[in-house]
Amino acid sequence: MAIRTIWKSVKGFEGQYEVSNTGLIKSLKGKNKRIDRFDVTLEKCSKGYLMTIRDGLSK
Predict the structure, then answer these.
(1) Taking the model in full, what pTM does it have?
(2) Cβ contacts of residue 59 below 8 Å, gap of 6+?
């Protein structure tokens, strides 16, 4: 069964970026819309969840 990709706006960056439930980040800026894969982790905190995004290049 295939996973359906769901896109949501990134809070504070509405109209610029969207994040998917599969760890993809989509840039809505510029002529060429880019979709990149990042390592995304969610951590529960007092105000909800903290999202950490790594580009795969940093260590």
Answers:
(1) 0.54
(2) none
Residue 50, beta-bridge partner list = 43
Q: Give the whole-angstrom CA distance, residue 20 versus residue 37.
A: 10
Residue linked to tokens 């903290």: 50
Name the helix (H) or strand (E) containing 25. Answer: strand 24-27
**Which 3 state secondary structure label does DSSP give 56?**
coil
Tokens for 39? 């390592």
pLDDT grade, residue 25 (50/70/90)?
A: confident
- For residue 23, the tally of other CB atoms under 10 A from its CB is 13
